[in-house]
Amino acid sequence: MATDDGVRTLQREAAAAGAALLVISFATGGLLAAAMTRSVDADVHAIAAAHLNAIFGCLWLVALAATIPWLRFAPAGRRRLVFVTALAAYANWGITVIKAFLHVAGVGLTGDRANDLVFAALGAAVVIPSFVAAVGWLYGLVGPRAAP
């Protein structure tokens, strides 16, 4: 039986990370209802954004899982790409939920400590890793695949 360099296992892990994020998204939908009825003190728009962030993160992870065999990377490069993508997707959901309870935008430095911490966390755990993962994914998809 021919080896697949762990491709199928990595595909399953990436897809499972996406499926788990979808479950988290649905749970966040319940949190959204609670915020809309003011049962919890959280910004409704930020909770809605977190709900959507988790859905989009799920889709990204599942799309990545489907394309892993096409990547030009060696096994370690594929694993790193899945890790960075999952990190960004989960952080996007988690930090957005946190900012909803802090009632801050987190999209720029304002001098407000909570806002500035959210801004820094989003930059370090979401924006930069998302950009790196997207560029890495594109790079991995163009050109020849790595030799087995």
Describe this structure in words.
The chain is mainly alpha-helical. The protein has one domain (7-141). The protein is built from 4 helices and no strands. The radius of gyration is 17 Å and the shape is flat. The mean pLDDT is 95.
Layout of SSEs?
Layout (H helix, E strand, L loop, with lengths): L6 H30 L7 H24 L7 H28 L10 H29 L7
Helix pairs in contact: 1-2, 1-3, 2-3, 3-4
Question: What attributes characterize this protein structure?
Answer:
4 helices, mainly alpha, single chain
Q: In DSSP terms, counting alpha (H) and pi (I) runs of 4 or more, how many helices?
A: 4
Structural class per helix/strand content?
mainly alpha
Oligomer: single chain
Number of strands: 0
Strand percent estimate: under 5%
Mean of the pLDDT scores?
Answer: 95
In short:
By secondary structure, the protein is mainly alpha-helical. It has helices spanning 7-36, 44-67, 75-102, 113-141. The model has no long low-confidence stretch (mean pLDDT 95).
